[in-house]
């Protein structure tokens, strides 16, 4: 039949068993015909109405013929060539005797209904008869497999606009299963779970607002149940249904719903029930908030919130146990909408504020203030460091509650100063933190007592802790004006201090600047005092050996880092760099000729920072000049300045990449060519990470650099193909290309990685075999996001991926960063319905 040698009607004519007087013989004939139809329903081209009439007539035959007849009708429902009206006549015949059918035959009928609803619009011509017929056929169904099919049909009836004259009957025939009470038998081959049935039934019950008048009383009734699972199902169903309802569907049931929800929060012993009740309250309030107010109608939201606000009196009884449940109820309703939040806040906040203001503002410890202070100061005088730490913490708390008098503060500062100048180290951190907390409220005591004392008696054993204390207490501009000169004096006398102490003084100034960067008075202090003094000290240090060293001293060349910090931070539109052309020439020369790494790197950064902000009209000449010089040095393997030229290349390339300058491609091509270089190849691969990363000192938005959006994505889209081609063409040095690719992909946004990784998967798998651990770790970071929801191309390469991952297991340091992520990803399979899946998940986590 499928090959066209016979038609289905010819087969019918040849099947003499169809007219046999023996029922079982006729059943075998119908079975053969049905099996042919199941395989060849798409080839039906003629007179399907004869087949349909034949099968409908056979439904009245002996009961042993009914199963194969239904299978044949199911095959016909899949055909797109059924004549008009065929579906209607078929259903009229089917609805008569569904109850008397066996399980498999009922499933066949339900599948026929699903097929016809998806393909035939003329079913709606049956009107309410179709719904009534389905209700009759479903009534009394108990098999969970068939219930899933029946719930799907009921859901389709609601969604596809069928006549709902028998709304109550449809609700009754489905709601009798609510809440679902089903425990799958052990080793169930069908794998049907209770949650599947719950979700399928919930989709029906919440599918139309016309069910509201029947469903809401049922939910209120089920909330009175003592069965926890029934309550939870009812609350979750309530939250789901009100998302489909309007206020008119709820108005008659608001009081009963509120009473039930309040009871579940006030009296529940289960956190799940409480959370579900609060979520249902939020959803209910949100539904009422969507109502359109009319002049002649009642505001249902205000009516409902009047009920909710009756529990606010519990907030003013903090000693009773209902204060927290009441607060949770009000918060849940308040978070539903702006209107609800406004109404609840307006009702609750004034009395709360009044209650707060009416109570005494004195701390509970006020009566014990003198005793506590005496105890604290006594403990600070002890030699036990643990006792000192505890006392410092308590002193901080007393200060924060404004319990300390001026005399107490003076005494506290004396104790803290003494502890800072002792030789013990264990309590220093607590003392420094306490000093910072007290200085924020009482700066004068620290200006007059602690800072002068530390300046006078800062002997070697305690210098670093004193420097930390100066940074900690500098929380106000008035203190900074006194502490900053002390720190600058340390730098001025660097010869008398160790390197660590000088560095600590610089870090202390940095902490102060970062903490008070938005304070105008502090900024003025740094501008007028600190920065000029720092620049002066740096210049003096660099020039002090001018007589002993030549003019190109590397000590003086380091000053370029200060220049970089200044000129690269200027807003281009507000500050003009003087003699910029001369400065650029000097920077280019220094970056290519200096032998000191800090100097030539800082010069390259400064040069790149200025180019990034330079106008287009003045930029091309400098780019051509730079490319020519860099290429000249890099193309000579014997050159002693190749490292310097490479540093300049990479920073200029980044400066042009950030602003989308077209000349960037020339520098990119040069960088790609260096991947073949025996000496600079690994550095070139690492250079791609620098191109894609955020710079902390120059070339960032904080320094007013010209940074365009999505520059990383643009770089990847324009250059990923070049990397792949270079990898395929490279006879050796392939690891450099893999490392470069990994560095680029690893810096892309996660969503871009997920979309682009499949095309690069083969190269990334190759990168996992690279001996460079940095490449391995970077590649694993690239693969991590796509492994969560693996695309088809990754599934096809699963064997190759697993084999490479197994090879890495021998190096635990590579795998350890992904341990937590893998364990989280393996958690859901532990609850899988299949025992085999659960067992494998347990083994994998182990």
From TrEMBL:
GO biological process: DNA repair; iron-sulfur cluster assembly; protein maturation
MMS19 C-terminal domain residues: 549-814
GO cellular component: cytosolic [4Fe-4S] assembly targeting complex; MMXD complex; nucleus
Top-level taxon of origin: Eukaryota
InterPro entries: ARM-like, ARM-type_fold, MMS19, MMS19_C, MMS19_N
Location(s), subcellular: Cytoplasm, Cytoskeleton, Spindle; Nucleus
Keywords associated with the record: Cytoplasm, Cytoskeleton, DNA damage, DNA repair, Nucleus, Repeat
Residue ranges annotated for the MMS19 N-terminal domain, each copy included: 16-267
Gene3D superfamilies: Leucine-rich Repeat Variant
Keyword DNA repair belongs to the record: yes
Family statement: Belongs to the MET18/MMS19 family.
Function in brief: Key component of the cytosolic iron-sulfur protein assembly (CIA) complex, a multiprotein complex that mediates the incorporation of iron-sulfur cluster into apoproteins specifically involved in DNA metabolism and genomic integrity. In the CIA complex, MMS19 acts as an adapter between early-acting CIA components and a subset of cellular target iron-sulfur proteins.
Subunit structure: Component of the CIA complex.
Protein name: MMS19 nucleotide excision repair protein
Lineage, top ranks: Eukaryota, Metazoa, Chordata, Craniata, Vertebrata
